[in-house]
Amino acid sequence: MNLQTDYDCVYSVVDLHALTVNPDPAQLEQRVRATAAQFLAAGVDPAKSILFVQSQVPEHTQLTWLLNCLTGFGEAGRMTQFKDKSARLGDQSVSLGLFDYPVLMAADILLYDAALVPVGEDQRQHLELSRLLATRLNSRYGEGTAVVPKPLIIRETAKIYDLREPGAKMSKTGHPAGIIELLDDPKTITKRIKAAVTDSGSEITWDPANKPGLANLLSIYSALTGQPVPEIVQRYEGKLYGHLKVDLAELVVESLRPLRERTAQYLADPAQLDGLLNEGKQRAQAIAAEVYGRIAARFGLREGARAE
Predict the structure, then answer these.
(1) Which of 48, 83, 150, 172 is catalytic?
(2) Residue 302: CA count within 13 A, CB half-sphere
(3) Cβ neighbours, 10 Å, residue 59
């Protein structure tokens, strides 16, 4: 599915969400620019789609507060990612921002009347909260207050697992050796894939329950080539894990090479990148102001009433 052809797409660099892990300010600014450049390098066409930085559109935080007032404490507390992190780190080590993260995500979605939201499997629960809040808005304030979004989950890449801990998702907050970043150099990528945790035995088979590490590598291979996993397994019949790792490392390196090169080109021209993001901000804010005004008016807020 080519989303940019079939839909009016909105892509956001969610720097407000990043604040939940207390990033270094200079590093955050650099990563925002790098992320925007990667969106463009991966094929986001600013002539067809909107690309902007979340914090530059204040309606995101404004709508979050309205949704906070509709969200039960228990509903927010049941979010799996918050429960897992607070259990692991302790209540004193997690912020209110992390607790409220899913509500901000709901605002990100509802603010653009999004009908379809591409997410990974780990975000399904958060999207369900967005759907719940949209339905609640319509029930309380009348149909048409919010669009109820639907998830788009690509089965083959619904969840990519950590290379060191194949029971956990691959995440930027995990151990560096367990993840592959899009801008990693070829040597780093190769080293991490070759060191990936596999499983007992040596036969290459598809068995996620008993061989989760191997299944993760096969999933990555399938996602990058478009080949069904059974065909990949058949290709490696009689071969060892090491053969698969060597080939997969080369595949990942070559698949990411064009993206790394295009990203570097965008980062080398900051004026062009800033111009594209500023245009995206203006287009995003035009939509956000209208939708926020509509929803705020239903709450009885005077500012919202003026916006309608």
Answers:
(1) 172
(2) 0
(3) 22
Return averaged pLDDT per consecutive 10 residues of the chain, 308 residues in all. Answer: 84 95 93 96 95 98 97 83 64 78 95 90 81 97 96 71 81 77 93 89 88 92 91 92 94 96 96 97 97 96 57
Specify whether 194 is catalytic: no
Going along the chain from its start, the domains and CATH numbers come out as 3-158+270-307 (3.40.50.620), 176-265 (1.10.240.10)
Q: pTM for this one?
A: 0.85
DSSP string, 5-71: HHS--EEEE-HHHHGGG---HHHHHHHHHHHHHHHHHTT--TTTSEEEEGGGSTHHHHHHHHHHTTS
303, 296 Cβ separation under 8 angstroms: yes
Q: What is the pLDDT of residue 174?
A: 66
CB 53 within 8 A of CB 281: yes
Phi, psi angles (nearest 5°) of residue 117: -130, 110
Determine whether 172 is an active site residue: yes
pLDDT score, position 151 = 87
How many Å apart are CA 224 and CA 240, to the nearest integer? 21
- Residue 78's pLDDT is 80
What would you measure as the largest C-alpha separation in the chain, in angstroms? 71
Segments in 111-240 forming alpha helices (H): 124-141, 186-194, 212-225, 229-235
How many C-beta atoms surround the C-beta of residue 48 within 10 A? 13
Beta-carbon neighbour count of residue 39 at 10 Å? 21
User: Would residue 85 show up in a list of annotated catalytic residues for this protein?
Assistant: yes
Choosing from 85, 211, 245, 281, the catalytic residue is 85
Question: What torsion do the CA atoms of 36, 122, 64, 135 make, to the nearest 10 degrees?
Answer: 130
